[in-house]
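Final report, Chapter 2: Outcomes

The project's central promise was a pipeline that accepts a single protein chain and returns its three-dimensional structure in a standardized token representation, suitable for archiving and comparison. That pipeline is now operational. To close this chapter, we reproduce one record exactly as it appears in the project archive, with the input sequence first and the structure output second.
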Amino acid sequence: MRFCKFTVLVAGSLVMLISGCNSGPNGTYTDANGAVILELRSGGKANFTFMGDVQDCTHETSGKQLTLICKGDAGKTVFNIHDDGSLTGPPGSFLPPLRKEQ
């Protein structure tokens, strides 16, 4: 019986550790002027606001990239995740660097 309890405890701890490592960026990210707002929520949900226009989106993280998939014309955008936690859009895009709100 003790072995079973120990196994369940270890397995539960590993699941929490793995899910914590794969969570990626979360919270609210904005540009310096507040014209671009990216809200990353749990469950892969997100809102992307550009100059007051809000888009419902989903997001996923792989390595040092965050992929934002929005409905409508916004489509898919890949952000680079930097060591300081900031996000930048694809090279040549209109998107300014986004930093997490404190």
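Archive annotation: Strands lie at 27-30, 36-40, 45-50, 53-62, 65-70, 76-81, 87-88, 99-100.
This record, like all others produced under the grant, will remain available to the consortium after the project formally closes.
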